[in-house]
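pinning this so it doesn't scroll away 📌
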Amino acid sequence: MEIAKNNFELNDLLQNINGNLGFVPTMGSLHEGHISLIESSKKLFDNTVVSIFVNPTQFGPGEDFEKYPRNENNDIAVLKRHKVDLLYLPSASDVYPNDYAPISFTSPLTNKLEGALRPGHFDGVIQVVYRLLSLVNPDGIFLGKKDAQQLKILSLMIDQLTLPVKVHACEIIRENNGLALSSRNAYLSKNDKVSASTIYKGLLSAKAEFRSGSLDTEVVTAAFIDSIDPSIIKNIDYVSIVDQATFTPTNGSINSDALMLVAVRFGSTRLIDNIELTI
């Protein structure tokens, strides 16, 4: 595996790559969710590039930028084991040089749900992904479905700016108890992890209620709440059912292609998850 630690090394190494290119952007602290993206890229593309960059612009005041899990040596070992072709380890000055001009892309979706609770978060995500795409110039980018709102926003950006890259959305990877894998799971206590595992139980109950014929938003939402650990109900930031194509909230009656999104707090840690509500 080649490693580029700045833009000059990246350009040199990219010039020597033959064939098409799949790209997996990460913030490191790699887990099986990231590995699934890498393996998906390897199946479809001749070469796979992974970036590790903890992006400061997507963290708000008081968030966990400074303590975000970082383990570069372990991440490098994981990537070598999975035969990644190229690792890009940029500094902030590589991603955001002094002459960097932010792109102009806005969407109402950036201010809803996660965007409402984390002002400016998606603006930072948009900027870093656009910048990484312009540096790596991949043929495909691999993103996880766990961050469903982020996936939708980045897909809109790529489409509206007509960027020459295809988005590949990959399934959520879970622990054996159903908890969606996340680097932030490292913050959870053992008791938190047990309680957090009931989030998926609630999502499955909501999906079962929907598939049984219930189309009422309140009824399906109640199925979720009734199935999670009662102690975490007070910590719910949101439970929202949206149309998958438009991310418009369902208004009373759920259509046949919807998505339930949830966010729950465990101390200062917020976990997000979702499930498709399809017939």
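📌 and the second one:
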Amino acid sequence: MWSNLPFDVLAKIFSFLSPDSLARARSTCRHWNACVDTYPIATSFILLSLHHRAWFLALPTRNRGQHCYVHNPVIDNWHLLSLDFLPDPVRPVASIGALILVRPTNCTVLQLTLCNPFTRQFRYLPMSNIIRTNPAVGVVTLDSVQHGPNPNFRVYVAGGMSEAPRGGAMYELKLEMYDSMDDTWHVVGFVPTEFAVRLTVWTPNESVYSNGVLYWMTSARAYSVMGYEIDGHRWRGFGVPMADKLEFAALLCRNGGLTLVGGASEGEACIWELKEGDRWG
């Protein structure tokens, strides 16, 4: 009976499955696998999220093997997923719908890859127009899903080192943006030299997007934050609380706003939210 169901009916049923169940379902037979490929929007993250709470995914921060951990909130259970299908060891850049954008850890030249740890599929994004090493990367997820099973997105690359016109290397000042809608990189602006240096040398983590601004935190003491206003094409920088005393600090988006989590070696972790005028509260 199941093999005779029309694809649109079967796809509707699949839309109620959790990510792990969908991955197992598509591996059952060629008919079901073809259904998932033929009706990607019906089995996309957007519709899945209507029926299932979001899963939490974590990758090790140090080289402890090619794997990641995912938490299923429905049954409150953790899963270990191997990433050995990827050709290189990676660290995460951002989640994009049901996919993960990653970058290699064994090469300084930026090569971004989209992967699905459940279906064990991946594809490389095109190389940027400017070959650069150790740049900062930021991701903005767009609302539209009309062009594929996941939201459209844009990737911003800032800083890094590139080849100088007369040989050697220089800090790259051009800001590039990859648009998933046309699968192409574009030069969209410039980065102040001071910011380009900090983004290259002192920015080990990726960005956080909040209210039209991409934020990066520098790891050099004292900690500080850099922001790029996408619509206005403006850069700005500001400090963080206890900047010279923090032993660890990280940015995240909470309730739509920028949040800072940090703490000293002998104290408890603290949480601050960014208010108007770049004030922390």
